[in-house]
Fold this protein.
Amino acid sequence: MKEEIKALIEYRLQEAKESREEAEILLENGKNRGALNRVYYSMFYATLALLSTKQLSASKHSGVISLFHREFVKTGVISPEVAKFLDVAFDLRSKSDYRDFVIPEESKVREVLRESEVFIRTIESAAKNLVG
């Protein structure tokens, strides 16, 4: 079972990195909304990888984020400062994807993209520490 969990974690971390790369490509081509969507998903997939270390999942994004905070932020595995990157990205992505006339500013997308790199590295390190 442990090898299956490790494989799932690696798969989800790879999804996170690929989504982040897609965000960079979209941003460089002036597609801010798509870039923001992909950068959020890069953090979301990393979060799913971390939840896999405890065999946890949820059917909604808000549930995934809630589990993440309960299991990893409140317990001190992930700092609140790094966790906030996910919260901000989720909020911005939700507004951008579901509200009319909301186009994210390039500077904000670049900021979230930078934060996603820190977030993914932090999650990857924590996951490796938890599963060995």
About this structure: The two ends are 14 Å apart (CA to CA). Helices lie at 2-28, 32-52, 61-73, 80-98, 106-131. The first helix runs from residue 2 to 28.
